[in-house]
Design goal:
There is one protein chain. By secondary structure, the protein is of the alpha+beta class. It contains eight helices and 19 strands. Strands 9, 12, 15, 16, 17, 18 and 19 form a seven-stranded mixed beta sheet that branches. It has a four-stranded antiparallel beta sheet with strand order 1-8-6-3. A hairpin with a 4-residue loop joins strand 4 and strand 5. The longest helix is centred in the middle third of the chain and has 20 residues.
């Protein structure tokens, strides 16, 4: 048997939540095939199988948080499967069939010289039968979520009467709602049944009243996922820690817009991915961070930590609004637009497919969030601790503006810099934004 353990997804991570099994007991798995999903306070990831064989045992249920190196399952390798007739993976997980029942024994013939039955007066007193113990309600199968326990307590539900349909027979919220709906229907039917006639004659058969419809629930309660709970905790911590101030600047990116329009087909053909506005902003921000290194710093107590590397985190919204993750482009100031676009596409794709490594979401010194990709003009982003600033990029829109006392149509976007006023003053924040704006508006670097 091969033990499958909860992996350590980074030096500072001591536990993980097993969110989903991708295989079930008895399934065939191949080496490096995704086996289960985990969620930590840093990243969500799929964990591959360490060996090929049959998933013999699942020891940790979905939604359970365990320490690293905890055995969560066991795999029976192919050479460990007992020899014999061909056996399917599903059959391996089935319990062995009981042996065929032997024919009932023939009762022996009564002895010819059996003594007559003793009279009741001489027979030994019969053992007094102990009263039957009341039936103990069956324990619910598997662990119960806090939501299920709270619903059972609030509605006074005997969980031993509820049939679980979750993994391994666990009771879910939907099971409780179905049970309550059934109980309500039975109660209503009983209350609407006609009273029995006083005449002993058999009453005529009465029609069963229709079961009343159960009104749909007005609310639905779900626990936060591990990632969402960590995001909430991180955002509250950031607001409590930093003195947030946001300054907004408008940038004319017409030159970049014209460059993209001219090169986008050739760029897609050469590199296999699209050219967006974001790598231009990252490139300009990296240059501005060189000029204003305090924006690339962090605070530790009353000390200022200046970072020699410019590691820019790019906020990535996960599909379906399930979370937000910030993978890091290391040494962003050493890359050109093509290298930055390649890194952005790679990190965003692997973030959404849960393939990021823990080191790829750590060590950032400055962050950028592109809320303009969803049509927002500008917003006030929250600082990603322990950093001291984050730059938000709004949507690029064609706008009528005054150029040399004439009306012109220009491609405009808004840059919103949120900074920690404990370390950065408004004047310095505006100077940083003006540097980014100057680079974008006077873009001259060749892309291809």
């Amino acid at each position: 048997m091969i033990d499958v353990v909860m992996p350590q997804m980074g030096e500072s991570i001591v536990e993980g939540t097993l969110t989903k099994w991708l295989k079930k007991a008895g399934d065939r798995v191949e080496r490096d095939e995704p086996l289960f999903e985990i969620s930590t306070d840093k990243v969500d990831s799929e964990i591959p199988s360490p060996a090929a064989g049959i998933l013999a045992e699942v020891l940790v249920n979905e939604g359970t948080t365990v320490a690293i190196n905890t055995v969560v399952a066991r795999i029976q390798q192919v050479d460990e499967v007992p020899a014999g007739p061909a056996t399917t993976p599903a059959e391996i997980s089935k319990p062995a069939a009981p042996p065929a029942a032997a024919p009932p024994p023939v009762p022996p013939a009564p002895a010819a010289s059996a003594p007559p039955a003793a009279s009741p007066a001489l027979s030994p007193p019969a053992a007094v039968a102990a009263p039957a113990a009341p039936a103990t309600p069956a324990e619910p199968v598997g662990p119960l979520s806090p939501l299920v326990r709270r619903m059972a307590r609030e509605y006074n539900i005997d969980l031993s009467q509820v049939r679980g349909t979750g993994a391994g027979g666990r009771i879910t919220k939907a099971d409780l709602e179905a049970y309550m709906a059934a109980q309500g229907a039975r109660t209503a039917a009983a209350s609407m049944a006609p009273a029995p006639a006083p005449i002993p004659a058999a009453p005529p058969a009465a029609e069963v009243p229709p079961v009343p419809r159960t009104a749909p629930a007005k609310t639905r309660v779900e626990p936060m996922s591990t990632m969402r709970a960590k995001i909430a905790e991180h955002m509250v911590f950031s607001k409590r820690t930093s003195a947030h101030v946001t300054t907004v600047h408008r940038a004319d990116v017409t030159k970049i817009a014209n460059l993209r329009e001219r090169l986008k087909a050739q760029f897609q053909e050469r590199y296999g991915f699209s050219l967006t506005y974001l790598p231009f902003v990252v490139r300009a921000a990296a240059e501005a961070l060189r000029t204003f290194p305090i924006v690339n710093a962090s605070i530790e107590g009353t000390n200022i930590i200046y970072h020699n590397e410019i590691n820019i985190g790019i906020a990535v919204a996960l599909d379906g609004g399930t979370g937000l993750i910030v993978p890091v482009i290391r040494n962003a100031d050493e890359r050109n637009v093509v290298g930055l676009q390649r890194a952005i596409v790679d990190l965003a794709g692997r973030a959404r497919s849960k393939q990021l490594k823990p080191d790829e979401v750590q060590g950032g010194t400055f962050s950028i969030t592109n809320f303009g990709s969803f049509g927002s003009i500008f917003a006030t982003p929250v600082i990603n601790q322990p950093q001291v600033a984050i730059l938000g990029v709004g949507a690029v829109e064609k706008t009528p503006v005054v150029v040399d006392d004439a009306i012109a149509i220009r491609s405009i976007c808004h840059l919103a810099l949120t900074f920690d006023h404990r370390l950065i003053d408004g004047a310095l924040a505006d100077q940083f934004c003006q540097k980014v704006k100057q680079i974008l508006e006077n873009w001259s670097e060749q892309v291809l």
